[in-house]
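Homework help board

Subject: predicted structure for assignment chain

Our instructor gave us this sequence and asked us to write out the predicted structure in token form, then describe one feature. I got the tokens but I'm not sure how to describe them. Can anyone check?
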Amino acid sequence: MRDTRESRLLLVLLIAIAFALITVDIRGGEDSPVDGARQGAATVFGPIESGVSAAVDPVGNAVSAIRDSGERHDRLAALEKENAALKARLGSDDRSRSRLKQLDKMLKIAGQGQYGIKGAEVIAIGAAQGFSWTITIDVGAKDGIKRDMTVLNGEGLVGRVTTVGPNTATVLLASDPDFTVGTRMESGDELGFASGQGDRPLRVELLNGKAEVKKGDRLVTFGSQADRPFVPGVPVGVVSRVDPSGGGLTRTLYVTPYVGFTKLDIVGVVVEAPKKNPRDTVLPPKPKPTPRPTVTVTVTPSAEAPVDGQNQQEQ
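My token output:
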């Protein structure tokens, strides 16, 4: 259409009508008189818009994917970081559960033996003083710890306190070659002295050379005068080997200790001895023997084998 006076008047008229319709539509709200016309237009042009949108969406999605790829990479990195943190927390929880289990077993021993204990954590192990088998614990004089106190854990005898600082203490382990403790056999009065042998079983010399001892018998601490350095009744270990009696004044045993000296974590220092000797009450329950199945073999004579009477007739 050419740019004439009539065309300009027509354009102004159409614009005026458009504004008038918009004003009527806004004022009418939900009851607008042009609502029917709008719905009709939507019916006619809706499928066309959907087709155009379907054609354009893949392109738009591709552009969005490119634009958001950096964000997804960041989210992935964040998720991986959270995953690693979760695994670390799970590992920490596993360790916490293990330590709680150790503490629970130690408190059970303390309750059974009526020992007053001060809980401690092992913070160092090894050659704190020369090449001795020692550990360092995180309690000291400020916590009431003194030299020559018994140290135990949830399994049994760990050792004795040898050096005390303000906040830490050194414990000589029962496995040290310089360590000696008085012992008593379970359910009896056979006394002896156990000595450490490093990573080998404890060596026990019984005072009675004719004592009846067998593999599997168990030992506890005999106790010391004034309960220092050892309180009575703390589990020591299980007899693993008995040397043949040679008629000597003593008898030698080899005892596997209850405590694993290379994996110590939570221990307790006995700061108050029991009023009464617990004797064997602190020992763990004896394992029940596993029954051995008995197999009986019955031999049935073969039907083809000749009887003695037939053999004699044939001859």
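Reply (TA_rk): Your tokens look well-formed. For the description, you could write something like this. Helices lie at 5-28, 35-113, 308-314. That's the kind of observation they're looking for.
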